[in-house]
Design goal:
Elements: H1 3-8, H2 12-46, H3 50-75, H4 78-95, H5 106-133, H6 137-224, H7 240-273, H8 281-313, H9 317-334, E1 340-342, H10 343-360, E2 365-371, E3 379-381, H11 385-397, E4 404-413, E5 416-423, H12 430-438, H13 442-445, H14 455-466, E6 472-476, E7 482-489, E8 501-502
Parallel strand pairs: 2-4
Antiparallel strand pairs: 1-3, 2-8, 4-5, 5-7, 6-7
Helix pairs in contact: 2-6, 3-4, 3-6, 5-6, 7-8, 8-9, 9-10
């Protein structure tokens, strides 16, 4: 496939990856949005009672300050004085965060009142400490009493304000809890909608990929049934499906055109032959049918070769390999069945046949070979191995559970070159094997393979070709399944004995 065409087309793998990535990205973004909303709401809930906590800390710090002041005034301890100054500084830091502006809000006005009284209170306590250090007993007692009055008023104001704020915060907390429930509900609904939409979109995209394949399969079944007027549907999916459909339609057009031309030529000949004697009419028709039977196979593999070249030009390598193997298989079948061939050509035909079956049945047949390359030049009758392998497939491993295996080996055994074909299928009964070798089994005569050749035909031709009665053996394999061994006399070809070469 050219670079320009590859840029315009998207492979099926790329389409599936785009679907997967887009769905994951959308779901991830929705989850991030839900997390941010929930986290923000929870932070607002956590901050509802922060004002109550600050007022409690302010009240506690004021109590510590008052306690350290009374302790210092009674004992004049340096430690008490140091603690007093520490608590004083902490109290200043805390009440300095209160409101100092005049606003139309009772809570804010209460904060301003506490702020102003706190300044007066600290002035009184500072004066009391100064009087104590100056040993002015009457002075610091009077100042301490005034400070205590301010302390009681401050504590009362702080507690009153704390209660008011707590009630307001409780209402806010209830509203935030309701809001949190709504956020959770909306988040769940949103996530459900996104997941449902993503699933629907994924199904739709997947169906758009699968539907053309189903249409192609239906068209292929129609053509396989003999309806040559059916076209492969062209769906512009811009992927491998469109390429295969177009290539198959071009091949079908070529086949139809050739059939039409051939039919016209034959009709023309028939019209000429009608002028001849009536007695020769049947003979001419028989000759025409014979000619058609000879031409159609040649046309078939020539058309398959054209399809293989077209698939290669369009970059469909697997389709090209399949069509090429089909062409080689039918080209071999066109030969007369009694024409001699070589073991090498028979092995190549077996490879083509197994390859075609594996394409049809998704690689269910595991094919293993062990060949001595020095023995494959021997002459032998044609169409011997393929019927044996097809028999192993149809009556051995097809329909079995597990991995189906066929093993083919070529080796030397004294005066014979042996070809062994074994499978791991259901096996064969000894009585049935004896009937096949005697030509008495319905299995060998009525159930023919795709080339119309049964095992009885294979056995008879081997006997006539080599003039030996025991050149074919079939029976149960030692490891299970069925074993077929063909014995070819060495004087017909081959080379000296040697170790096998694995392929």
């Amino acid at each position: 496939m050219s670079k320009k065409k590859s840029k315009d087309c998207k492979s099926i793998q790329r389409k599936l990856m785009e679907i997967f990535i887009l769905v994951i990205a959308v779901v991830l973004m929705v989850n991030i949005y839900i997390y941010i909303r929930l986290n923000r709401t929870i932070q607002e809930i956590d901050g509802v009672y922060s004002s109550n906590i600050q007022l409690n800390e302010l009240s506690e710090n004021l109590a510590n300050l008052e306690g350290m002041l009374g302790q210092y005034l009674n004992t004049k301890s340096s430690d008490s004085l140091e603690c007093y100054y520490m608590y004083e500084q902490e109290y200043r830091d805390k009440f300095s965060q209160l409101n100092t502006e005049t606003v139309n809000n009772q809570t804010k006005l209460a904060e301003k009142n506490i702020y102003n009284i706190s300044i007066t209170y600290l002035e009184k306590t500072g004066d009391a400490v100064t009087a104590k250090r100056g040993r002015n007993v009457a002075g610091y007692n009077e100042l301490y009493q005034e400070a205590q009055q301010l302390y009681d008023y401050l504590q009362t104001s702080i507690h009153s304000m704390n209660t008011t704020v707590f009630l307001e915060n409780s209402q806010n907390y209830s509203l935030l809890r309701v809001s949190l429930n709504y956020v959770i509900l909306i988040s769940v609904l949103l996530l459900g909608i996104v997941v449902a939409a993503a699933a629907f979109w994924t199904i739709a995209m997947t169906r758009s990929i699968i539907s053309p394949l189903v249409e192609l399969a239906d068209a292929a079944n129609e053509i396989a049934g003999g309806n040559m007027e059916v076209d492969f549907p062209i769906v512009e999916t811009k992927d491998e499906i469109s390429t295969v459909a177009k290539a198959c339609n071009k091949m079908l057009d070529s086949i139809r055109e050739y059939i039409r031309t051939t039919r016209e030529n034959y009709e023309r000949e028939s019209q000429l032959l009608e002028n001849e004697l009536v007695m020769k009419n049947d003979l001419k028709e028989a000759q025409l049918k014979y000619l058609q039977a000879q031409i159609n196979p040649h046309f078939l593999f020539n058309s398959l070769n054209a399809g293989a070249q077209l698939a290669m030009m369009e970059g469909a390598e697997q389709a090209c390999n399949f069509i090429q193997n089909m062409a080689d298989f039918f080209r071999y079948n066109v030969r007369m069945i009694d024409k001699d061939t070589t073991l090498k050509e028979e092995l190549e035909l077996a490879d083509n046949y197994v390859y075609i079956l594996n394409v049809r049945f998704s690689g269910e047949i595991h094919y293993h070979k062990q060949i001595d390359d020095r023995l494959i030049s021997i002459s032998m009758p044609s169409m011997i191995l393929q019927p044996v392998i097809e028999n192993s497939v149809n009556h051995g491993i097809r329909g079995m559970e597990g991995k189906g295996e066929i093993r083919l080996s070529v080796y030397s055994d004294g005066e014979y070159i042996c070809i062994r074909v074994t499978d791991n299928g259901t096996g064969i009964e000894p009585e049935k094997a004896e009937k096949i070798m005697r030509g008495e089994s319905a299995h060998s005569q009525q159930e023919r393979d795709s080339a119309g050749i049964g095992l009885d035909n294979v056995i008879n031709r081997l006997c006539r070709y080599y003039n030996v009665p025991d050149g074919f053996h079939i029976g149960p394999a030692e490891t299970g399944g069925t074993e077929v061994v063909i014995y070819l006399p060495r004087e017909q070809g081959g080379t000296d004995d040697g170790e096998d070469t694995h392929m």
